[in-house]
Automatic annotation (TrEMBL):
UniProtKB keywords: Signal
Gene3D superfamilies the UniProt entry points to: 3.40.1520.20
Name of the protein in question: BON domain-containing protein
Coiled coil: none
SMART domains: BON
UniProt lineage: Bacteria, Pseudomonadati, Pseudomonadota, Betaproteobacteria, Burkholderiales
Species of origin: Comamonas testosteroni (Pseudomonas testosteroni)
Domain of life the protein comes from: Bacteria
Length: 217
């Protein structure tokens, strides 16, 4: 059953309050994709969080420099794994954009989810994506049985992408929660999956990349 906005309103306020009190959950709207999830309580090392910010900035600037107005792309990095969303005019441009991102020496992996399609994202669509991201993040906080600070949420054209370092149970639970939010058309998990023992150990070493691209329609 879809979650009503009234059910997550209090959690949304909690997210907003945390965002002011800490580095918190910061919502960004870049090129149409709504992003949330940079948290002061994070399973990445502080150094990796800084690296992720640098990757997003450098890759975004490089794409703008080369592509100009031929593409509308958002770059999201989590634990040096990059998600590309948005639109490109043709398949060649889509491949070129991915190559530009892979030029960044600290990038470990790239998920290229750019659509080859006209740039049709309106202000209304971008606003809806931003609202969906806020509602998904609030629902994760409201759930209590999952660490919302370990998950980054990206929404593009009503498709929700979930990134983070999580256990198999958390991966499944997060997808279920996101799928229950109004207006979500699909949930795609791009998690790095670790065992419960690895989570308990809480080592500073980055988790190995385990592709989990299962979708929930």
């Amino acid at each position: 059953m879809k979650l009503k906005w009234t059910r997550v309103a209090c959690a949304a306020l909690t997210v907003a309050a945390l965002g002011g009190a800490l580095s918190g959950c910061v919502a960004l709207v870049g090129g149409g994709a709504a992003v949330a999830g940079m948290s002061a309580v994070d399973r990445r090392t502080t150094g990796t969080q800084v690296e992720d910010q640098g990757i997003e900035l450098r890759a975004g600037n490089r794409i703008s420099e080369v592509m100009g107005d031929k593409a509308r792309v958002s770059v999201t990095s989590y634990n040096r794994v990059v998600l590309l969303t948005g639109q490109a005019g043709n398949a060649t441009d889509k491949v070129t954009i991915e190559k530009l991102v892979r030029e960044q020496s600290t990038v470990r992996q790239v998920y290229n989810e750019i659509e080859v399609a006209p740039f049709t994202a309106t202000l209304g669509q971008r606003s809806q994506d931003s609202l969906i991201t806020t509602k998904v993040k609030a629902s994760l906080v409201n759930a209590k049985d999952i660490s919302s600070s370990a998950i980054k949420v990206v929404t593009e054209n009503n498709v929700v992408y979930l990134m983070g370092i999580v256990t198999p149970r958390e991966s499944k639970r997060a997808a279920e929660i996101a799928r229950g939010v109004n207006d979500v058309s699909k949930v795609v998990r791009l998690f790095e999956v670790i065992s419960e023992d690895e989570l308990a150990a809480a080592t500073s070493k980055a988790a190995p990349v385990v592709e989990d691209r299962s979708s929930m329609n």
